[in-house]
Amino acid sequence: MKNYKIAVIAGDGTGPEVTAEALKVLEAASKKNNFRLDLTSFDYGGERYLKTGKVLTDRELAGLKKFGAILLGAVGHPDVRPGILEKGLLLKIRFGLEQYINLRPVKLYPGVWTPLRDKGPDDIDFVVVRENNEGLYVGEGKFIHKGKKNEVALQVSRNTRKGVERCVRYAFEATRRRNKRKKLTLCGKTNVLTYAHDLWWRVFNEVAKEYKDIQTDYAHVDATCMWMVKNPEWFDVIVTDNMFGDIITDLGAMIQGGMGIAAGGNLNPKGVSMFEPIGGSAPKYTGKNVINPLAAICAGAMLLDHLGETLAASQIEKAVMDVTQNKLKSLAAGKMGYGTKEVGDLVAERI
Ligand code: IPM
Ligand code: MN
């Protein structure tokens, strides 16, 4: 029987609650499909930081390399200064494990309310490939004359040919594998970011020559936001840099029904990848059994898909669709018509 070693970082706030439901569903999927998940839990997050002062040590980071994949609940704690956990945990894992792709499907499931009137599941079904190791996220920059009237703050967007190329190449491959509209849109801002996105533009067009079966397109990031609202059906796969990817995938999450359903994967195609609901720790809902676990469950499905358990992954997705279509009143916390645990049960019993 196949056995996968999975690291589980449930994290803060509602992270543990949604992670428990994801694990419940993964357990059902593993039983049905005859594989085993060997889970190891880690208490990394805000609580531990407040107790010990440790976020994630280099040793702990290295320890994560032994696993087949990582499932993350949520990080973010109201008593921890913004940036500490984000940089010290989430970004440290993304960068340290070279998870250079952030894959974020934007898919409207049946029965799910979208703020886009006149748009349905046939219209909202695309994938964002966000570069995950470079750009403005490298944390390079400086203050000049800090605190003075003539202060200047510099923040560098670092884009390497190697980093851009592997991301763009992944996006072309993903577009081909997806085999839908076979269209890849580069989202950038070439009219203003005349260095960074000039590189993206050149690399994109060079790599495109190897993928004659894929139709290519380009949209500035502002226009991308406009089209995502007005004509989301135009998109199949979008590839973009780290910062723009962060922004447009929150918009994407909203048109697919909100943070209750949006999941993503931080991928190192040759290493250890990490899957997470893309919403935060939602501290105000902690312990109330009201948070929607579907995003974490969908992250679990992405994890299985990544491990090669594609059948199990699609069974989970089908079960989620059945639940959104026939059971839930809403995807919003506290308005689902069921509690967190009951939603997990509904999905698990459909596997
Ligand atoms: C996300 C989050 C993170 C990001 C934050 C928490 C650092 O917003 O996963 O999209 O900006 O990437
Ligand atoms: Mn974000």
Descriptive notes:
The protein has 351 residues and is α/β, with parallel strands linked by helices. The protein folds into 2 domains: 1-99 and 265-351, Isopropylmalate Dehydrogenase, CATH 3.40.718.10; 114-256, Isopropylmalate Dehydrogenase. It has helices at residues 15-33, 46-52, 58-63, 84-96, 161-178, 196-208, 221-230, 242-255, 294-307, 310-326, 340-349; strands at residues 2-11, 35-42, 69-74, 101-107, 125-131, 141-144, 152-155, 183-188, 215-220, 237-240, 263-267, 273-277. Helix 5 (161-178) packs across helix 6 (196-208) and helix 10 packs across helix 11. The longest helix has 19 residues, at 15-33. The model has no long low-confidence stretch (mean pLDDT 98). Manganese (II) ion (MN) binds at residues 246, 250. Manganese (II) ion binds at residues 246, 250.
Name its key features.
351 residues; alpha/beta; Isopropylmalate Dehydrogenase; ten-stranded mixed beta sheet; two-stranded antiparallel ribbon; 11 helices; 21% strand; binds 3-isopropylmalic acid; binds manganese (II) ion
Q: SSE layout and pairings?
A:
Layout: E1 2-11, H1 15-33, E2 35-42, H2 46-52, H3 58-63, E3 69-74, H4 84-96, E4 101-107, E5 125-131, E6 141-144, E7 152-155, H5 161-178, E8 183-188, H6 196-208, E9 215-220, H7 221-230, E10 237-240, H8 242-255, E11 263-267, E12 273-277, H9 294-307, H10 310-326, H11 340-349
Parallel strand pairs: 1-2, 1-3, 3-12, 5-10, 8-9, 8-10
Antiparallel strand pairs: 4-5, 4-11, 6-7, 11-12
Helix pairs in contact: 1-9, 1-10, 1-11, 5-6, 7-8, 9-10, 10-11
